[in-house]
Specification:
The complex is a heterodimer of chains A (about 210) and B (about 280). Chain A is an alpha+beta fold. In chain A, about 10% of the residues lie in helices and about 30% in strands. Chain A has helices spanning about 60-70, 105-115, 125-130, and strands at about 15-20, 25-30, 35-40, 45-50, 80, 85-95, 145-150, 170-175, 180-185, 205-209. Chain A has a 6-stranded antiparallel beta sheet with strand order 1-10-3-8-6-5. A 4-stranded antiparallel beta sheet of chain A has the order 2-9-4-7, covered by helices on one side. In chain A, strand 5 and strand 6 form a beta hairpin. Chain B is an alpha+beta fold and about 280 residues long. Chain B is globular and about 65 Å long. Chain B has one domain. In chain B, the strands form 3 sheets. Chain B has a 6-stranded antiparallel beta sheet with strand order 1-12-3-10-6-5. Chain B has a 4-stranded antiparallel beta sheet with strand order 2-11-4-7, covered by helices on one side. Chain B has a two-stranded antiparallel sheet with strand order 8-9. Chain B is about 25% helix and about 25% strand. The mean pLDDT of chain B is about 95. Chain B has helices spanning about 10-20, 25-35, 95-100, 140-150, 165-175, 260, 265-275, and strands at about 45-55, 60-65, 70-75, 80-85, 115, 120-130, 185-190, 190-195, 200, 210-215, 220-225, 245-250. The chains are: A alpha+beta (about 210), B alpha+beta (about 280). At the A-B interface, helix 1 and helix 2 of A face helix 1, helix 3, helix 4 and helix 7 of B.
Amino acid sequence: MTTLSSLKPEDASKSFPVAANSPFSTIVKKGQTIRIVDSFGQQAVDTLFYNAEDTDERYSAHDTVAAQGAAYITTGSQILSNEGRLMLTVTADTVGYHDTSAGACSVESNTVRFGHHTRFMHACRENFVLEAGKYGMDKRDIVPNINFFMNVPIEPDGNLAIVDGLSEPGNYVELKAEMDVICLISNCPQVNNPCNGFNPTPVEILIWD
Amino acid sequence: MTAETESIDELKARYAALKETGQKEGEFEAKLAAAPAAPTAIPDDKILKQDVVPGGWYWTTDIKRGQTLRIVNTEATPGIALQIWNRHDPSERFNSADTIKVQWTARIGKGRVLLSDMGRAMMAVTEDTCGYHDCVAGHSTAITNEKNYGPGALRNSPTAIRNSRDNFRIAAAKLGLSKRDVHQSFCAFAPVVTGEEGKLQWREDALEPGAFIDLRAEMDLTVCLSNCPHPMAPGGLYEPRPVAVAVWDAGPVAPDDLCRNGTAEAVRAYENTDPLFD
């Protein structure tokens, strides 16, 4: 369900550009709001959240989907941890559907999906593992994530596929932190499926107190 | 870096071709129909290990590459959950997202493979008489139990209500692993389907007593099964029923094996997996 935010970019306390193909992370404190802006449209932003006090507690797609009884993330979605606790709430979303079932790309899964020639192409899990290392985390901490702006309809017969993204330039999703979290992002570099319109582009992160 | 020099049109065309083949009605189904059926009763001399997992409890086993894990839902309990680790390196574990994305379907059943996070086949679904398993909603937790069965379900009471997440944390600890190693489960006998706006539904007619699934290990594994009802199981009463488990020898893998050859993606997963054993 799409909703606009009442927050103004000029009131943001922080803003970060995230280059195409790149990792990014930031702490979002309880009560702050983070907005992820798809500046150029059709750009998947793979995102994970961790309890800043204890990174054993992390985003859980299964907990989130089971609790809301629906597969897609949008306004009102409660972002839950593997403890079933509320980490963030989606407070605004100008797209309407974000995926959390298809996970991040990796060089390993790319070889299975697209062919062994993709073994040496950059992928989200490379970004995630590197960025997670800054917080003392490793590959075991990289779990299935949210793919903001990625469009993956799941049919009643189970068929699912990444299809053309719905987001227009400037579309955004906004979340309010309900606990201090580490937000880990990979600005997806994938060019073998439509998640980035076959053309990875920069995005922007804004934070309000 | 071959693909980076391809044009957007070439990349689009390749993806469209892969998607069309991956979701083509009939091709995979034809291979499925032609594949042999596993015996309903395992011959005694092929059983390596067997047990019964009571409702609410967990069961951990090692399983060697080539052996098959059979889970029989003798009384149609509403869902069981599985954790799957590479026995020699448990940082490699089942990845539910890769499994459904790579195979173009959330409906993982006979003929499909359960993929690890490292692009390898961990288990092959060599038989499945149920047809409905969940990779999207996941296993129960203390909070889903409280929501489903009410507060006050005491852990240590005579009628203790148990949940899969806690079961898996205990099982992981006994393996020298930690909470970080508890991953998104493959939930067998959990008929979750998506409808309008991605709303999840539980297909009540999909569970029959005696349905079973065979999962052939494609690498040496440690598997943990938790027999707690799926968070979406209807009814409001916590009444998990026992399941029968067996590790058995289903014989050598045929050259035209359904799972190894079912899809182009599976073929590549095995190309990633087989070198571990050369």
